[in-house]
Structure formats: C-alpha cells, structure tokens
C-alpha cells in the first residue's frame, strides 16, 4: 500500500507529465500507461484527467504480478 506522500508526489508528477505519473504507479508496460500516453498525445487535459483517475481510483494491488512490477516496488 503506497503512503500518502507517494500518492501526493505521483499526483504532482501526473499534473506536469501525466504518463510519467501513471508509469510510477502502474509500470511502463501497463494498459493504464498506454491509455494515458495516447490521451496525452491527443490532448493534455484528457491525459491529466485519466492520470489522476488511474493513480487515485485504480487498485494496482489487485492486478499486481512480477511482470507488471512498478518502478519503486517495495518487494
């Protein structure tokens, strides 16, 4: 479970660069990252909205396995 500080940092990064914030939370080869990257290319605001949704509401522990390991895993 990420701490509040980690989530806060991910949100601030997601506002500046939405795909990077999603990458920190879900990993670089995840569906969430690809969707956020495409939305950011199509428009900056939709990318931010989806990044915030992916960081706050999508539970990564439910889909966690070794192949989708995030960048800062504590395991």
Automatic annotation (TrEMBL):
InterPro entries (UniProt xref): PMP3 (IPR000612)
Record's GO cellular component terms: membrane
Keyword Transmembrane helix: yes
Name of encoding gene: Vigan.01G413300
Major location category of this protein: membrane
Family assignment from sequence similarity: Belongs to the UPF0057 (PMP3) family.
Keywords: Membrane, Transmembrane, Transmembrane helix
Keyword Membrane: yes
Subcellular location: Membrane
The species this protein was found in: Vigna angularis var. angularis
Name of the molecule in the record: Hydrophobic protein OSR8
Spans through the membrane: 7-27, 33-58
Superkingdom field: Eukaryota
